Amino acid sequence: MEQDPWRAVVEQHFRVYEERSEPLPGGGPLARMYFVMFPGDELEARYEAVRRAVLEEDPDAVVFLRSEGGEDVLVIAPRPPVRTGNNRANWVLLALTILTTLTAGVLYWHGYRHAGEAYTWSLLWSPEHVGNSLLFFVLPLMGILGVHETAHFLAAKRHGLRASLPFFIPFPPIALPIGTLGAFIRLKDPLPDRKALFDVGASGPLAGFAVAIPVLVVGALLTTANAVELPDAGRPEVELDGVALEADGTGRAVLELTDPAPGPRVLELRGAEDDWSHRVQWTITLENGTERADAHDGTLARAGDTTLLSLTVPADAASARVEVTWDDGIIRFGDPLFIKGLELVGLDNQDYLTHPTFFAGWVGLLVTGINLLPAGQLDGGHVARAVFGERMRYVAYFAVGALFYFAFQFQTWILMAIFILLMGIYHPPPLNDRIELDWRRKLVAAFVLVVFALTFVPRPIIL
């Protein structure tokens, strides 16, 4: 019989009352299984002592604890084999991602500095466009993503886990104006315990968030310094009984009336450009609290054309609201709470076009917020599984349900929710799921929740 090399090590820290050996799937070396007893409050110290002793003798061993029929089983097995190969795919994907983000950058720079000019190949790929795109968009964006994945890689190495280099994901900028879907690393070893699971999951988003902050601050300062005015697509004239509705610069004009006089009202619209499409919504709140609402969609063929709309205010109306919206040709990005905080301290100037560096920082926040969704194999799924254990599944159900709810504001969330469902909403446990997180990691987990609240935005793009 093959001599057991590990029983003496295990018995130094646990009482072993039964031992078994099982072949690994596919044959090969045996996995040693020790049925053990121990004081409950000493599990972590005893388990770590055995793990360190085994790894000192055999760095390619895996040590974990599992439960079988109410019995605690300590398992020591050979580390799963990893297919050797080169990193060619990583470098190819990195080069392609630089190309797609560079393309996204030159398109953004053209809209930022040459709004209204026609796109031509020679102009888009001029030294000005390429140089500014590399410096002000590609470098900060890839820096955020690179630091994010490097933090994952280093956290894995700190726990003795083998990990791949980052796989960057290029994406056509014509379909997604940032040119990438982010990046990921592949762990080649199973996660040993909740602490390793937490460290690997939380390290990336926190590091990426830390880099995104100075990128956003620099981008905000560059936005103000360059002071590129918003393009004037022409604002229509909107009047209700001769009273003008003031446009707010976002393709919207609103008039609120308190205790309006009953009777018919006339809304006059005069288009500012050809084929001006608009939507009129009016809401009347009655004295009993009920609301009456209606809407009208229309298009004026030529600039200066006028249309008249009639609405009637009933005698028991307590208030009335008229809102006119139109497409002014400007794409707006939803602001997460962190950027709203920059607005409060005067760093985010909404009066000018957003500088590409600020946009790169915004993308960094978006990627952080998405990765921290507490579901599946996302970083937030790792953190939630480490914190909540088996109860994490309920958190994941809530997160996916919230995505379907947010899809009413931004339809792309449906694709994200479906992706999580296909990937698997449930996160598998680490090898040792018995050891709880220490108080320091629980504090970091609370901070991760704060970062998620600061970075997630329900409606990223507002058309």
How is this structure best described in words?
- The chain is an alpha+beta fold and 463 residues long.
- It folds into three domains: 7-78, Alpha-Beta Plaits (2-Layer Sandwich), CATH 3.30.70; 88-229 and 334-462, no CATH class; 237-326, Jelly Rolls.
- Helices cover 42% and strands 23% of the residues.
- It has twelve helices and 16 strands.
- A hairpin with a 2-residue loop joins strand 3 and strand 4 (71-78).
- Helix 5 (127-158) packs parallel to helix 8.
- The chain is elongated.
- The protein starts with 6 loop residues before the first helix and ends with a strand.
Tags for this model:
463 residues, 4-stranded antiparallel β-sheet, Jelly Rolls, Alpha-Beta Plaits, 3 domains, single chain, 12 helices, alpha+beta
List the helices and strands and how they pair.
Elements: H1 7-11, E1 15-23, E2 30-37, H2 43-57, E3 61-68, E4 71-78, H3 88-113, H4 121-124, H5 127-158, E5 167-170, E6 180-184, H6 194-226, E7 237-240, E8 243-244, E9 252-258, E10 263-270, E11 276-286, E12 291-300, E13 306-313, E14 317-326, E15 332-333, H7 337-344, H8 356-371, H9 379-388, H10 392-406, H11 412-423, H12 439-455, E16 461-462
Antiparallel strand pairs: 1-2, 2-4, 3-4, 5-6, 7-8, 7-10, 9-14, 10-13, 11-12, 11-14, 15-16
